[in-house]
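Reviewers of the previous submission asked for a worked example of the structure-prediction workflow described in the proposal, so we include one complete record here. The input consisted solely of the amino acid sequence. No template or homolog information was supplied to the procedure at any stage.
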Amino acid sequence: MNSLNKTTRLKIALLNAENLFLLFDHPATSDLLKLTETQWQRLSSSIFPNKPLKKCLALAKTFQEINPDIILLCEVGGAESLKNFNSLFLNSAYSEALIEGNSDRHIDVGYLVRKNLDFFFDLLSNKNRALNFLYPHERNPSLHLPSHKFSRDALELKLFRKDKEDPFLLILLTHLKSRLDQHGFDPQGFERRGAELNTLLNIYSEQTQKYPRTPILVAGDFNGQAGRPQPDEEFKPIYSNTDLEDVLEIAQIPTESRATYYQIRNSNKNEGRQIDFCFFSEKLKPFLKAHSASVVRYKDEQGNEIPRPQSLDEKFALPSDHYPIVFELENLGVW
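From that input alone, the workflow returned the following structure tokens.
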């Protein structure tokens, strides 16, 4: 299939790539792909271990089979890692688009946009956007503390043909606060994640007013159940304050087929949940190609679908602890 026909059709994939660090002390060449895992890890003196070579190869194979035009990635170890993944594993088929965000783990959100398509793109960070949020122990007015910001970012990608003030698609990519609460300030990160979600929705509202005819996609790792029929409390403003709808809901994908992440309990009982989402604005919904949306499952070396993990070992063996969401858009730019 021709991946793009005069910018009217796009295949998009979203994935939390799980600690995609690819940092090398010397220029990386394709010869590195022949190394053992021990040799691979010795290529970098960074404090962040490189993503295992076997997992990188498996991720690349997954993307090659999906053949997306735009890849939305969470947990990327900076611009250098994104560039190295593209050049080493994807034959430099994409242009990298990443702005370092606020993560204390140095994991960013970023894009890969296929080269030689007949449109341009523009990138804008919201990492300095105030959330108007302080933790409970910080709310003493006498402290005069500044508001917190996004844990990572809400990174805007605008696609346009000639005038970048008239984009035919706008994407907001984010990775909201996790449930980790190391200091006990905010159990399960509930308040901070809610503040980030509300700020994300404010940005979305501003963009719908600025670009009234532009379809908008709001996507990323939301770190919670943001979908219907029972969204977690912090995500209810999506449905009360906006027209956004999850692509898997629009496509009527069965709930049991929507899991993008499996939590393995101590009893080795697995619990599948959707915590990654691609929310469509009302103007974007008509462009969804019928039957194109799905959660992609990883395959083994024989091309067979790998069953959902039943243990931590099986989960660790996967290319990522998240699964990609994939869909196609068609007739974009036809107002």
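Residues 135 and 185 are 7 Å apart (CA to CA). We consider this example representative of the routine output the project will generate in years two and three.
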